[in-house]
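User: Hello, can you help with two protein structures?

Assistant: Certainly.
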Amino acid sequence: MRYLHPILLQASLHETIWGGRRLERNGWKQLPPEKAIGESWETELNTVAQNEPYAGKTLRTLVEELGPALLGEQSIAIVGDRFPLLAKFIDANDKLSVQVHPDDAYASLYEHGKLGKTEFWYILDAAPGSTIVYGFKTATSRAEVQRAIYCFTKCRSTPTSPTACMIMVA
């Protein structure tokens, strides 16, 4: 088996209307000045390795060069030659936009062969009284979603706090 060194990736920072500065304020990230950063993508394919012997290479290049040594045979058997995980930090300084989580079959067919959007959330920090609004309470039509889009009446909600965990299956 080929020996791999740990890979330190430079995160890809994404400004959003609901983002903030908490990732920097809490000492987790250095952010560009005066930007509301909502997401820090840690393992996106275009993130760049910062350490030797991989420095300057994107995660995509490392996947191509290292193949099974990086991904593992079992992962390749399930999802092919692609990095199977997008890890990110989210700073939800305000209400997030509605997110769509297609399953693998839908994503493969309509999103150019991508994987579905199953997510695991670990809450690092949350203000008292914070909630997560997620999923529909019952089967919901497109017309019902369009009518309810601004009031979340069709969505489930749960209180959250630091160290809470959630899995959102696509």
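That covers the first. Now for the second protein you mentioned:
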Amino acid sequence: MTRFFIKHRKAVTRGIIALVVLACLTLHGFMLKEVHYTITSPKLTGKDSFTIALITDLHGCYYGQNQKTLVDLLVKNKPNAILLGGDIYDDKIAFTHTDALLAQLSDIAPTYYVDGNHENWLPSAQYQAVLAKVQQHGITVVQGKQVSITNTNIHLYGVSDPASGGFDKDLQTVGKLAQPQHLNILLSHRPEHIEDYRAYPFDLVMSGHAHGGQWRLPFLLNGVLAPNQGLFPKYAGGWYQFFDGGQTTHLIVSRGLARESTRLPRFFNRPELVFIDINKR
């Protein structure tokens, strides 16, 4: 054995280094990241600023006892609203950790929910039970609905995931309700439908689903592969802006919170909890 190592010392050393690098990258992909965006909108009334926490793609993953890591970040940032952007539950993973988080959210801030594809992959009865459970936690389901945020002119809208079969109807319903004089926010799991969203006067669209493209090359490649976008996704994660004459649409795509649930480890693509500050000026 000693002779083997002496003879193949360089190859063994390279192998050990490669394993250490792989282990470090994998661990890095488990480290939660706190992400902040600031958007200015003269439409905001009633407050000088409004903070939103965006949670997507939890997939039932574990973030400490009673999800303490996530809860502590939320409490620290004091959001005015919490938006749950789909795939909070998973069709293959136990609901334990998701339930532990959702049970605490409405005590932090008013919380709003739309589903994702994984909730829709649950058996019908189980899916309905999930919706009932969400509402029992004091969370408002906004699929196909409009909600006016108290003491502001912010109107929040939601659409169900395309896997539900109700996406087009929901979007048409809420799109017709959206009036340009309001600050209109759309919560939708899928970012790749941005061109459909831009047909309506939404100022801000919040999504997830892409998991940050799973693997990233910092400063070179924002993501390698995302569901329903394929290789090198255009909307893997981040802040995107679109200008249509006098209408500006902001798209915020969270890289999500999935980690141990993913088939492949995340490289240079940490799970994230997103906070959006909307300032009047």
